[in-house]
Design a protein that fits this description.
heterodimer; A: alpha+beta; 5 helices; about 15% helix; B: 12 helices
């Protein structure tokens, strides 16, 4: 509850502002930046992603390979993707489809997403380079999506928050980087580095080393993107419409990935119940919806420049066998 | 898009947000004629804000040589091409002769081309402004082209005033803290904001997600992506000093590091407001001797330049707009008031909000380019935010004669 209030408080200003300005600002903005949405976008797809209950011993080392067996018999759905064409900046269109499979073991849920990508972009250090990524999105709370109960499949809406899981290819590399985050010399091996981390180097300066975090704005502001040692490859976020994406204080999702034969396979996993009011909660026997987006770093995809599905996809969790 | 008034362009233009001017706007006047490109400003900034990991390529303040220099390389040529406006046409017949109130009017005439915002709309490119992301290699050589002259001279042929045929000049660049920032318009997360109290433009380091839309759509290329933290950073106008948090000025607004460090005394920083006795407002709005950099981009930049008197006018008009000829004319034969205000440059670190001139005797008289020039040894006094005197200086610099006992002491 405390967290919910904190979110409310941080959104408070924006919400108040929106109330006062909605008649003016929103008209000005939406008329240009956000184009109208078609009626069919508020209708979920007919195909349902059935999340089978599978009993298996969760491997100690969670990798795509070690989870292969668990996901072997999982049912999958093909998700059609297209360019994002409603909110500035528009873009995407290089990835047409992705396959989503899911299982749960009564404790955790596993989503496997795979899509074709001819180039692996697992670094975002150079100014002109962007990462590959994939995100799953779920409505918060129990909702019914229909043309009567409009719930935007694009980042949710005001009063209709969504929970997003965003996997980033470079976070995978950060997991194993020394120092907990890949630093610039990884991208530019021959660069002169004033900040040698080796205390025996002539370039080592204790004071400077200690100042590094203070003078890294993102680190000082606790921006998750800037933080070393995140311990995960997925960012747990919320949104209430375009431009409202906000990282959660409590991160609950993780993933493993594999890039092979020009194809990304990412397996997201999280406990069915995360005990966080800002997260989607999964109940066996119940159903909800999901939507997704894929970013192709090679095409400079980021933010709204992405490949999206324009409809919610129903998601039904199988009852646990002993229920 | 909404319609906002851009007084640099002398007209209304399209911008994604409503016009919302700060109470007073962070601004500065750089006198290009005086700069020697010693880069002391550059190092003052570097050693204060960007000496850290992942900022190796960042120079929030840089001094580049025109026409060939550029950091990042060719930033201005590339953006000028994007607004697709080779002729830079202005309608100057009805420009305002009188001083206009702050934020309105058409002091340089009316710009008839497209701004970066209008060009984006015309091209239907699904972003708020035209722009491009300079690659890492373009940021790598900040001194590229330094001291390289452009010349159409024959061997043995010399340049003469008023326009040198073999020429270069230095341009000192920091973030312009624009009234209509391209970076702010571009940010899909609204992580960039312009402070209501002083017009300083900042990137919220918590909200930024490193999308580099600001790097792309700032025409001056002053937001920079920090590969280490995966978010973008930019000049912060030394806001702790502006807020008077440096103990030296005892709570009074203080000029930025790059301004205070200026060896050539080319820089004066302050705020644009509606007080005609504010030195910045007077130089920019009333005397119109200091001009915006590439006003045609349409962001209403707030660093103003006194153009170099020796450079070809066509080049300068492209860079500073149609006000160039009038500004150079006034600079070459300075008025009594201009001499006084220019004497305030680098006399104090405390920001001067108002000046007063006490008249002194005539000390010199000559003719410059056929025009009569008279010099009076006036006293100019600068006052801080609270009206307290912080500077008192005369037009003639005081002369100190070293006593005999010190001669040859070196």
């Amino acid at each position: 509850m405390k967290k919910f209030y904190r979110l409310l408080r941080s959104y408070g200003v924006a919400l108040l502002g929106c109330l006062f300005l909605s008649a003016t600002l929103c008209v000005a903005e939406e008329a240009e930046g956000v184009k109208g949405m078609a009626e069919e976008e508020f209708t979920p797809t007919k195909e349902v992603l059935n999340v089978k209950f599978v009993e298996f011993d969760c491997p100690k080392d969670v990798t795509v390979c070690s989870l292969e067996k668990a996901l072997k018999d999982a049912e999958g759905v093909q998700v059609k993707l297209q360019k994002q064409d409603k909110a500035f900046p528009n873009g995407g269109g290089s990835v047409n489809a992705a396959e989503v499979k899911a299982v749960h073991d009564g404790t955790a849920i596993y989503f496997q997403v795979s899509w074709d990508d001819a180039t692996k972009n697992a670094q975002a250090i150079a100014t002109q380079e962007f990462r590959d990524g994939v995100a799953l999105m779920f409505p918060l709370g129990k909702v019914v999506v229909s043309t009567d109960e409009k719930f935007s499949p694009r980042m949710g809406d005001r009063q209709k928050p969504v929970n997003l899981w965003h996997w980033k290819a470079d976070w995978e590399a950060d997991m194993v980087a020394s120092g907990g985050i890949e630093e610039c010399p990884v991208r530019y091996p021959n660069m002169h580095d004033d900040f040698s981390t080796n205390p025996h180097s002539v370039n080592y300066h204790k004071g400077l080393m200690q100042s590094a975090a203070v003078l890294a704005g993102g680190v000082s502001a606790h921006n998750l993107l800037s933080m070393p040692n995140r311990g995960r490859t997925v960012e747990d976020l919320n949104a209430e419409g375009f431009g409202t994406l906000t990282s959660q204080d409590h991160q609950d999702v993780n993933a493993c990935s594999k890039y092979e034969n020009s194809k990304w396979t990412v397996i997201f996993y999280r406990l069915l119940n995360s005990n966080d009011p800002l997260d989607v909660q999964f109940v066996p026997g119940e159903s909800t919806y999901f939507n997704m987006a894929v970013w192709n770093g090679d095409k400079e995809d980021r933010n709204g420049q992405k490949n999206i599905s324009t409809q919610w996809h129903p998601l039904a969790l199988e009852r646990i066998a002993w229920q | 898009m909404t319609l906002v008034h851009n007084w640099h362009l002398g007209r209304r233009m399209e911008y994604p947000y409503f016009e919302s001017r700060p109470k007073h706007q962070f601004a500065a006047v750089f006198n290009i004629n005086r700069c020697i490109a010693c880069q002391t400003c550059t190092m003052a900034c570097k050693s204060t804000w960007t000496f850290n990991k992942g900022q190796e390529f960042m120079w929030w303040n840089n001094v580049e040589t025109k026409p060939y220099g550029g950091y990042p390389q060719s930033w201005d040529v590339k953006t000028l091409r994007l607004i697709d406006n080779p002729d830079n046409v202005w309608y100057t017949d009805d420009k305002d002769k009188e001083a206009s109130p702050y934020g309105t009017g058409a002091p340089y005439g009316t710009y008839e081309g497209d701004t970066i915002f209008e060009a984006a709309k015309k091209k239907n490119i699904n972003q708020w402004a035209v722009g491009y992301i300079p690659e890492d290699k373009e940021w790598r050589s900040p001194n590229f082209g330094e001291d390289t002259a452009k010349s159409s001279n024959q061997p043995g042929e010399y340049s003469t005033l008023p326009e040198h045929s073999r020429w270069f000049f230095y341009i000192q660049r920091i973030c312009n803290h624009c009234t209509y920032p391209g970076c702010l318009a571009a940010c899909p997360r609204k992580a960039i904001y312009k402070r209501k109290e002083d017009g300083i433009v900042l990137i919220d380091q918590k909200r930024c997600r490193g999308y580099r839309k600001c790097v792309e759509q700032c025409p001056y290329k002053k937001p920079m992506y920090r590969g280490l933290t995966r978010v973008s950073e930019k000049c912060i106008a030394c806001y702790p000093r502006i807020e008077g948090r440096d103990p030296l000025t005892e709570g009074k607004p203080m000029e930025t590091r790059c301004m205070s460090a200026c060896v050539g005394q080319i820089r004066l920083q302050g705020f644009l407001d509606d007080n005609p006795k504010n030195p910045i407002t007077w130089l920019v709005r009333h005397h119109k001797i200091a001009l915006p950099l590439y006003p045609q981009f349409g962001t209403e930049p707030n660093i103003y330049y006194i153009p170099p008197r020796w450079a070809p006018r066509a080049y300068l008009r492209q860079m500073f707009g149609p006000g160039v000829d009038e500004a150079i004319e006034k600079f070459m034969v300075p008025s009594r008031e201009l001499l006084a205000v220019m004497s305030l440059f680098r006399m104090a670190q405390t920001i001067i909000f108002e000046y007063k001139i006490e008249e002194g005797p005539k000390v010199y008289e000559t003719t410059i380019h056929g025009k009569k020039f008279e010099m009076y040894n006036d006293t100019v006094i600068g006052f801080d935010a609270d009206g307290k005197e912080v500077v008192r200086t005369t037009i003639e610099e005081p002369v100190h004669v070293r006593p005999d006992k010190h001669s040859n002491s070196i």
